[in-house]
Amino acid sequence: MAKETIGTILYTQEDIWRRAEELGKQITEDYKGKKLLLVGTLRGAVMWMADMMRNIDTDMEIDFISASSYGAGTVSSGKVNIKLDVELEVEGKHVLIIEDIIDSGNTLKFLKDYFGERKAASVKICTMLDKPSRRTADVYGDYIGYTVDDLFIVGYGLDFDQKYRNLPYITYLEG
Ligand code: IMP
Ligand code: MG
User: Fold this and answer.
1) Is 90 in the pocket of ligand 1 (CB under 6 A)?
2) 153 CA to middle of ligand 1, Å?
3) Cα dihedral 89, 107, 42, 130 sign
């Protein structure tokens, strides 16, 4: 198989840090006095999770969840399952899901319902990237880093076949 080609840089680490700081201030305000549970989605959101944690200045807990609707390709299968669950108690807490990218929205629709069933006080979404052109599920980001076109994004946690997660910037696959 031919090696895929990487496009130009869409967002640098500094671009991402700037947005994380802005959103972090807003979230700090919005969650004052509330029991906040930050839930990062593995593995794509690891870098963004670390950025957001540093920029939210209120008492909080953090945990991770791994859910997937993807096979090896670049198209969502629509079916979501939990591969690794949160460990902390969810009931009565304000859950803020820290996500890498909202594409079809299937994964987040599932996760929002899931935390709702577990009696979270509220469930909101903070996503690094939003790709609204491909949305099929009725779900939206409450806090959005950047909105991107219909491209296959890699870098800053996002992968293609587990590659490119370590790139310190956001780019896309050409072709
Ligand atoms: P959704 O359920 O279709 O919204 O997509 C869920 C997950 O698929 C995201 O959280 C990503 O981990 C992955 N994904 C969606 N679009 C892209 C992309 O452009 N590049 C890499 N991963 C993606
Ligand atoms: Mg993800």
Assistant:
1) no
2) 9
3) negative
Q: Looking at ligand 1, which residue's alpha carbon is closest to its atom 5? A: 103
Cβ 107 under 6 angstroms from ligand 1:
yes
pLDDT digits (tens), the chain, 175 positions? 568 899 999 999 999 999 999 999 999 999 999 999 999 999 999 999 999 999 999 999 999 999 987 554 555 556 789 999 999 999 999 999 999 999 999 999 999 999 999 999 999 999 999 999 999 999 999 999 999 999 999 999 999 999 999 999 999 999 7
By annotation, the residues acting in catalysis are 103
Say if pTM beats, i.e. exceeds, 0.90: yes
What's the rounded Cα separation, in Å, for the pair 142 and 99? Answer: 11
> Is 169's C-beta closer than 6 angstroms to any atom of ligand 1?
no
The residue contributing the CA closest to ligand 1 atom 9 is 101
